[in-house]
Amino acid sequence: MPGQASTSAAASIMKRVIEVIPLTPNASTSNGPSTSSASASTSTPASTVQPIPLGKGTNGRVSGKFWKENRGATKRSHLSPAIKSKSFEQRKALQTKEMAIRKYIKDLKDDKEAKDAARKKSIADRKKAQAEKERLEKMKAKMGARRLDRLRRRQGRSKKINQ
Fold it and tell me: I need a labelling partner for 139 at 20 to 30 A (CA). Which of 62, 65, 104, 163 fits?
């Protein structure tokens, strides 16, 4: 109903205009400017009009223009059924419970990853130790063969004679 919204807005604007511009008794009854000295003494000058103070809880949501309506907090047009049906305490308790479950699951995953990492590290260390052992055996065999060659040369034997 756009007509009703505009009439209520117009009514609130007029109310605010009347608050800002106070009417004196002489100004409301006369049609033109009055020349009497009594009306001049009873009317209030425009400089003494007090500004409208901010309302409590407006939190600065006032435009400063008297013809504009005060802005309120944003209202949600749709609330999910989960929010409507539960109180804040129930939602908070559910949230803390979910956070505890998430933390527990994360701890379990971290423990599993740590065990896997330790197992992989031990396998890698074993492979490294085995490779080092094989390398040392090859070097020992190679050094043993070189030593035998040296001894044979000292004795005057060659590879051809030994075969």
Answer: 163
